[in-house]
Amino acid sequence: MSEMGNLTLMADYNRWMNEQLYALAAPLGEVALREDRGAFFSSLFGTFSHILVADIIWLKRFARHPGCGAGLASLDRVAWPEALDAQPCADFAALRERRGELDALIAGWVPGLTPADLDQALAYTNMKGEPGHRRFGSLLLHFFNHQTHHRGQITTLLSQAGVVVGVTDLLVRIPDQD
Length: 178
Hints:
Layout: H1 3-25, H2 29-34, H3 44-62, H4 92-109, H5 115-119, E1 121-125, E2 131-135, H6 136-160
Antiparallel strand pairs: 1-2
Helix pairs in contact: 1-4, 1-6, 3-4, 3-6
């Protein structure tokens, strides 16, 4: 599979896993979702929020990359998060809706990228004000890996809350070859 094919697969996996985890978490209710569970972002709500915030930050950076911005134009109306632990949504229902919108945007945008887009470097500034200049395709890998990392934390927190998470492997999204 090509690099583009792998990134499209990751966009699909991202959407699928988020749908699964939000559906599993919703019945816990707001109080349980906001309960401090000793995680890096404290709670399930905090961890779900962090993934959303980090995705918004990266996508807004990606929108500045030549050839990539048109598919991300709708993010112009979204404010830059002020911190990585920001919680931009008032409740879990709003967070879930925002996540779904963002995942649809990602899944629609990634397949339109080209190998030339991936090979160009993206200049950006991190949240500490430090400049970066890295290959765009590699930054996309980081983007998807970051989501997976924190969803792993969410699956642990859900399991500790008594929720059976089930299969989370990327393997289930890879088509069988005849």
